Amino acid sequence: MTKSKKAGKGRRAKLPEELTEAEWAIMKVVWEQEPCTAGTVQETLADTRAWAYSTVKTTMDRMAEKGFLAIEKIRNLQLFRARISEVDAKRAELRKTLKRAFDGALTPMMQFLIEHEGLSAEDASHLRELVERATRKKP
Amino acid sequence: MTKSKKAGKGRRAKLPEELTEAEWAIMKVVWEQEPCTAGTVQETLADTRAWAYSTVKTTMDRMAEKGFLAIEKIRNLQLFRARISEVDAKRAELRKTLKRAFDGALTPMMQFLIEHEGLSAEDASHLRELVERATRKKP
DNA sequence: TTGCGTATTCTATTTATGTCGAATATCCTC
DNA sequence: GAGGATATTCGACATAAATAGAATACGCAA
């Protein structure tokens, strides 16, 4: 039988779309090394974050509950893998900023970036390139 | 006697640099109408957020503690005004995203935006314009 | 089969945010 | 100077995030 975690009514609990700070750190490792264990993640992050194993594990368990990670059990081992792509996560993150700080308007945000975050010459030419390509794609 | 809230040692608590969701909503109003009262903010936001006056007030008081807002007292009135500029807030917000999702690399973020958030033809030409101008400024 | 060494589960603490109601203070008008 | 309309202060409660120790389970090797 369908063992639904939360409630009956087909109503799916709104799962968070965005990652917290700690979750980002963890996801990055998972994306790179999946499938991997909590231990691996903890070790990989050791130099950056002084997190105890249990901290990482607890967080990852919660992320699994939220739908960000999937757990595969092998013997007494839990292998985690991502259930959201890096692209989706990035998109969500950017959208949040876009909404919050720029009322959802993309161009003003780009403009802000260009004007306030010094572009190097290379950056600029690279950008020009990208814009070119993007426009050429749809005439 | 000096009734210091926190601690003795001139050690200033690291004040947060970033705004939360609710704080963004409030700041936007303040930036537009400052100086203004909590009541004004509450009313202005009424159609968007069903917040009780005290919710807004409490949040704004906390924002003042954090250094985001300044309070000027006139009679029994409190006038709030921003202590961080919109530009700074935007910058902080973008930097956070930049760090989190793109390891601090600007160009990849721009690239992502260009490639994943459909640019209209106008957007593109506008962008080209901006990039042009930005490069011309520093040869 | 007895342990050793990991891995897992469970629970707990702290801090921040979101959210408000109730009690209190203050001002202006009559 | 009394009353009522506003504002302010305070404390409270819920949830989520960050963090981690303790207790427990499990698999493998001697």
Describe the overall structure.
- Two copies of one chain form a homodimer.
- Chain A is mainly alpha-helical and 139 residues long.
- Chain A folds into two domains: 62 residues, Winged helix-like DNA-binding domain superfamily/Winged helix DNA-binding domain (Arc Repressor Mutant, subunit A); 52 residues, no CATH class.
- Helices cover 58% and strands 9% of the residues of chain A.
- In chain A, strands 1-2 form a two-stranded antiparallel ribbon.
- In chain A, strand 1 and strand 2 form a beta hairpin.
- In chain A, helix 1 packs across helix 2.
- The longest helix of chain A has 17 residues.
- Chain A is elongated, with a radius of gyration of 20 Å.
- The N terminus of chain A is likely disordered.
- The interface between A and B is large, with 39 and 39 residues.
- Chain A binds a DNA duplex (30 and 30 nucleotides) through helix 1 and helix 3.
Please report the distance between the alpha carbons of the first and last residues of chain A.
52 Å
SS class of chain A: mainly alpha
SSE succession of chain A: HHHEEHHH
Overall number of strands of chain A: 2
CATH class of the largest domain in chain A: Mainly Alpha
Let me know the average pLDDT of chain A. 86
Query: How much beta of chain A, percentage-wise?
Result: 5-15%
CATH architect. name of the largest domain in chain A: Orthogonal Bundle
Oligomeric state, counting identical vs distinct chains:
homodimer
Helix content of chain A: 55-70%
CATH level 3 topology of the largest domain in chain A: Arc Repressor Mutant, subunit A
Instruction: Write down the Rg of chain A.
Output: 20 Å
Biggest sheet: strand arrangement of chain A = 1-2
How many individual domains of chain A? 2
Sheet of most strands of chain A = 2 strands, antiparallel
Largest inter-chain contact set: A-B, 39 and 39 residues
Instruction: Give the uncertain stretches of chain A in residue-range form.
Output: 1-13
